[in-house]
Amino acid sequence: MGGFLIFCLFCLVIFIIFLISSLYVVRQQSVAIIERFGRYQTTASSGINLRLPLGIDKIAARIQLRLLQSEIIVETKTKDNVFVTLNVATQYRVNEQNVIDAYYKLMRPEAQIKSYIEDALRSSVPKLTLDELFEKKDEIALEVQHQVAEEMSTYGYIIVKTLITKVEPDAEVKQSMNEINAAQRKRVAAQELAEADKIKIVTAASAEAEKDRLHGVGIAQQRKAIVDGLAESIRELKGANVSLNEEQIMSILLTNQYLDSLNTFAQHGNSSIFLPASPEGAEDVRTQLMSALKAR
Question: Are residues 41 and 92 in the same domain?
Fold first, then answer.
């Protein structure tokens, strides 16, 4: 009886070992390639799965179904003989419907993708100048994506997106481009400054001309007011039956005007005055003023 129990326990232990060795877990977003005696048997999905123990069924590989990204650096030459370095980011994943080809047909998918991208870029970029490359890099990335996607589809891979993240010309070319750009900006700035100076000069000249015109108008109006005042004073004196002729009246008015001018002159703190060089100068002024009054 005791020997039978031991045998049963032994069989139970063997069964548990076989059961444990037969169970395996596949994680989410991945599959397992199962081979039997070195030949493909099945593709196990995520969760708990069973296989034949004792190495009969073997997990050959676990394939990720998640999106993967590869960073690639490609050096090539443009149409205008400028060497550039392109940073390319490629996002790809295994086609769930074609996992067998993805595992058995391609050993190093990332290296293969890199080779296809390098070949596509080195056939597209030399057709463009450096400026065109900067302008059309998104179009080039899309064209490369279509070419690589078509090639990789036969191996069970899907190219989701290809991006040219950086275009880096040679250091000397980059410096020359910066210098050209700086020179262009300086030229535009100089033109703008010259235009601003021109506007300032024209505006100042226009303002000066307007000031002179208004000053002349003011002087003319002032002189007219003086003549009108003197004429009115003569008419008032004549109306008052003063026994003086026009020349005597004018002499009196000019004397008053002269004294008023001196008074105004002194009020502004002035200490110098210009007078006619000879006594005949005052007579000339009076004669001219009388002629102006008679003309009115």
Answer: no
Number of separate domains in the chain: 3
Query: Are residues 82 and 106 in contact, defined by beta-carbon separation less than 8 angstroms?
Result: no
The alpha carbon of 44 is separated from its chain's Cα centroid by a whole number of angstroms, namely 53
Please state the pTM of the whole predicted model: 0.55
Residue type, 44: A
Name residue 72's beta-bridge partners. 88
For the segment 95-135, what is each residue's pLDDT rounded down to a tens digit?
Answer: 988 889 888 888 888 888 888 888 888 888 888 888 888 88
Cα gap 56→67, rounded to integer Å: 32
The Cα–Cα gap between 146 and 121 comes to 12
> Among all chains, which residue has been given the structure tokens 């998104």?
138
Spans of the chain, pLDDT less than 70: 1-4, 173-174, 177-178, 223, 226-227, 230, 233-296
Q: Catalogue the long-range contacts made by 105-113 (C-beta closer than 8 Å, 24 or more residues apart).
A: 105/154, 105/155, 105/156, 106/155, 106/156, 106/157, 109/152, 109/155, 109/157, 110/70, 112/152, 112/155, 113/70, 113/72, 113/148, 113/152, 113/157, 113/159
Where in the sequence is the domain holding 204, given as residue range(s)? 184-264+283-295
Check if the beta carbon of residue 60 is closer than 8 Å to that of residue 33. yes
Domain end: 43, 64, 85, which one? 64
